[in-house]
Amino acid sequence: MSNVFREFLQKVGSGNHTAENLTRTQAATATKMMLLGEATPAQIGAFLIAHRIKRPTGEELAGMLDAYDELGPKLQPIASGRPAIALGIPYDGRTRTAPISPVTALLLAAVGQPIIMHGGDRLPTKYGLPLIDIWQGLGVDWTTLPLAKTQQIFEQTGIGFIYLPQHFPLTTSIWEYRDQLGKRPPLATMELIWCPYAGDAHVIAGFVHPPTEGMFQIALGLRGVTKFTLVKGLEGSCDLPRDRTAIISLSTSVTSQEVERLHLVPRDYGFTTKNVPLGTTEELVAEIQEVLAGKPGELMQTALWNGGFYLWRSGICSDMPEGLAKAEELLTTGMVAAKLQELIQLVNLVLGDVPFRVSTNSPK
């Protein structure tokens, strides 16, 4: 038993009237001790559920991020005139609405915006559809790439994926606790704003509950992150909803944490107020392939809505109307589909240990 961890547990687990918040340093230490197995299983399980009941603070989330930065993987900076976007999406996946973020990632990368995603397999508590399954359905298998080869793919295509079972196996034991407890611990909140990139980054994270937005802003501020976008998205993701007004917080300054609140109404831009329901993985992949082929449909509308916003937010387009027009151009002319084919080709080359080089005939 760790007496140090016992003290942390006593602080967060003392009840409504006497419980105390951890400092940033204490939260970092507690997180490292859980990941490294220095606390006992009883201590870890008790801490995770007690901390959930207490609710985390922004300072505690900052400490957890410090621990992930120290122990976890990072993609290294690449030559780009734009900060890399890190998309923070719930690791336990989607169960009700069709995800569009892989299309968004391909669309942004097609115009030179680097983008990083991260996650694992079907995980508790929802065991919903994870990003890794969608990518595999599209022909891109990130699961066996070591970090160095993922770095190569990222440098060449502008898209990187940190796959936790391969790149951050220390997190495996935490998922077992999460399954046994049946509840998301605060680590699940922290993961949304984790940025596994060593260079200049723009953190984009989804959230569900309004208090989470405030905690994110505090945590990011403590860590010196001044470029961020927080989206009250579908099932806690970065995907903008179509059935309601999209509520978004935007950082407005590169030197401070000034925040602008944005409300985007789908009807104002000609979109119907309907989210695409999630069917089987095979059905979703087929629908995404139709989007990449430029075919009209409900998922295409979702792709345009999201693509237009993120083209504007990343600075590629000057406003939403221009972003929407650019998203439509990229999808209907085959540029996004060409980016997927480039990605598939390069991943297969790397997996086959073929010398990694740029082909003059590769799609642009």
What would you say this structure looks like, in words?
- It is a single chain.
- With 364 residues, the chain is an alpha/beta fold.
- It has 2 domains: 3-54, no CATH class; 84-338, 3-Layer(aba) Sandwich (Pyrimidine Nucleoside Phosphorylase, Chain A, domain 2).
- It has 15 helices and 7 strands.
- It has helices at 3-12, 24-35, 41-54, 58-71, 101-110, 131-137, 147-157, 164-167, 172-181, 186-191, 210-222, 281-292, 298-313, 320-332, 335-351, and strands at residues 84-88, 115-119, 159-163, 201-206, 228-231, 246-251, 259-264.
- A 7-stranded mixed sheet has the order 3-2-1-4-5-6-7, sandwiched between helices.
- Helix 11 links the parallel strand 4 (201-206) and strand 5 (228-231).
- The longest helix is centred in the last third of the chain and has 17 residues, at 335-351.
- The radius of gyration is 20 Å and the shape is globular.
- Residues 354-364 have low confidence and may be disordered.
- InterPro entries: Anthranilate_Pribosyl_Tfrase (IPR005940), Glycosyl_Trfase_fam3 (IPR000312), Glycosyl_Trfase_fam3_N_dom (IPR017459), Glycosyl_Trfase_fam3_N_dom_sf (IPR036320), Nuc_phospho_transferase (IPR035902).
- This is Anthranilate phosphoribosyltransferase.
- It comes from Nostoc cf. commune SO-36.
Main-sheet strand order equals 3-2-1-4-5-6-7
Radius of gyration, in Å, reads: 20 Å
Gross geometry: globular
How many structural units, i.e. domains? 2
Structural class: alpha/beta
Low-confidence stretches: 354-364
Given the structure, what is the number of helices?
15
CATH topology of the largest domain: Pyrimidine Nucleoside Phosphorylase, Chain A, domain 2
Order of helices and strands: HHHHEHEHHEHHHEHEEEHHHH
CATH architecture of the largest domain, please?
Answer: 3-Layer(aba) Sandwich
> How many beta strands in the DSSP annotation?
7
Strand content: 5-15%
> CA-to-CA gap between the ends?
56 Å
Name given to the CATH homologous superfamily of the largest domain: Nucleoside phosphorylase/phosphoribosyltransferase catalytic domain
Largest sheet: 7 strands, mixed
CATH top level assignment of the largest domain:
Alpha Beta
How helical, in percent, are the residues? Answer: 40-55%
Keywords: Amino-acid biosynthesis, Aromatic amino acid biosynthesis, Glycosyltransferase, Transferase
Organism: Nostoc cf. commune SO-36
Pfam family, one: Glycos_trans_3N
Protein name: Anthranilate phosphoribosyltransferase
